[in-house]
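Lecture 7 notes: from sequence to structure.
We start with the chain below.
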Amino acid sequence: MITKIKERILSGGEITHEEALALLNTPDKDELYEAAHEITEHFMGDSFDTCSIINAKSGNCPEDCKWCAQSGHYATSAEKYALVSPSVSVAQATYNHKQGIGRFSLVASGRRSSDKEIDLLSISYRAIKKANPSLKCCASLGLLREDQLRKLFESGVTTYHCNMETAPSHFANLCTTHTQQDKEETLEAARRVGMRICSGGIIGMGETAEQRIELAFYLKSLRVESIPFNILQPILGTPLYGTTPLTEEEILTAIALFRLINPRSFLRFSGGRAQLSAELQRKAIYVGVNSAITGDLLTTIGQQAKDDMAMIEECGKVNRSVDWEVSYDF
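Predicted structure tokens for the same chain:
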């Protein structure tokens, strides 16, 4: 069954929802992982896309996302500060770019950035591009309007990020202050102004294995070019603290099936991977991960860029920021 599905995907076909569910319980996980590896190599080659993010505005968020340390609904140790200055943004972007990282994103807490904040962020992005012309700029600033997104695009932002987080059937269990439809509208507006889309989720938030498949197909339906693959890192003070961690097999199976379902998308190692052993991270790259956020994350420590660059090379990948419009044929 796995070989038949693999050959169909390599020939331009697709895996069905029923087939993906069946593969959750396949006894031959190694065959599944090998199939995902072949599909990754076929469609994505040896390129590995790196990006970095900084927490440009932290804490005091009015949303009630149960996984997030920055929600004002929970008592956590997350820092609280207003939007950082353009000089700080430029310094951070330049530092990361000098380490070989190809993309850089400013991330701000809150439901959406205000018009005044967007004006300041636009100044920051223009300054970042002036200082680092080859650095690709991304943004993750909440549920923005189309006019706000257009201003960012004109300032040099070419990719907008807004995670769907989990399966549609599970989202309301984790967040009640906004909907996935709100997120979809933001991503659609970003596309209209000319941006590429980055949207993924977090596994290990109490969802079933079947709901992970549901999320992967949901992202496919949205034609997402870059899929951040987060693994819950439970944070003290949030409702999900104490959640039982996923097994290595659950993580690798999810990665393999995300790859089979989204063969032409960048599958981006993101939050939570610092919990994983180096061996498991290398295996995940072999199976289907071909991009990563490196450096520190928002409220948890990520991977040091130097270590990541070494791991990427050890895995036979080449650190290069690929222009997504070249790699995709949706």
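Points to note: The radius of gyration is 19 Å. The chain has 13 helices and ten strands.
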